[in-house]
Structure formats: C-alpha cells, structure tokens
Give the backbone structure.
Amino acid sequence: MASNKSVELQNASDADLLDQLSETTVSLEKMKFDHTVSGIENPLRLREVRRDIARIKTEIRRRELAALSPEAAAKRDRILIRRRKK
C-alpha cells in the first residue's frame, strides 16, 4: 500500500514537485549544517528529509518515463537488456 506522502506526490503538479524538491533540498542542507555546528534535537529528521527528496525525485522520474514516446521507450528497453547481458 502506498504511503500518504506518495499519494500526495502523485496528485501534485509538475511545478509543485519541482518547488517541493528545491525547498526540501535547501531544508536538508540547512539541517546538515545545523547538525554539524551545534546538533539538532532529532537527528532522525535528516533521514526523513532525505527519503522525502528520494520520493519526490522518483515521482518526477516516473512521470518522465511515462511521457516517453513508444520509440524512445523501446530504445531504452533495448539498452537495459544489453546492460543485463554483461
């Protein structure tokens, strides 16, 4: 079953996803800095934010792949098959 965050991201527009990605990335960098300098109250929050960034990037990539033309998708599939043979 999909988490609430995943469902939220699926319903968001492309522009919203990009905005969320930039905001979350800035937030992560600030949290890393604060944690290095003085420590933060809940260090596990860093993990949550990293995972949120991964979820957002995954949704963006899923949409990119869904928008591929059939020719481009076939070419991508051939490349993946060729890589597996090695």
Observations:
- The two ends are 34 Å apart (CA to CA).
- The chain is about 85% helix and 0% strand.
- The mean pLDDT is 89.
- The CA atoms of residues 35 and 43 lie 8 Å apart.
